[in-house]
Amino acid sequence: xxxxxxxxxxxxxxxxxxxxxxxxxxxxxxxxxxxxxxxxxxxxxxxxxxxxxxxxxxxxxxxxxx
Length: 66
Fold this sequence. Notes:
CATH superfamily: Beta-grasp domain
Radius of gyration: 12 Å
Pfam families: ThiS
Protein name: Sulfur carrier protein ThiS
Structural class: mainly beta
Number of helices: 1
Number of domains: 1
Strand order of the largest sheet: 2-1-5-3-4
CATH class: Alpha Beta
Distance between the termini: 38 Å
Largest sheet: 5 strands, mixed
Strand content: 25-35%
CATH topology: Ubiquitin-like (UB roll)
Shape: globular
CATH architecture: Roll
């Protein structure tokens, strides 16, 4: 199955959860926010949130500084 992550196509398993994708992309579990199809997904829902074909994800990493 293919999804878009920050405008780049990513191939994932067909029954992947958001947590599994975060792990596959080797992203930190803290300091990031995820929106799928323009809807923010709370961290408490990542484990059970199943990704669908052609989902559009935006992953934002927190940065220090001002």
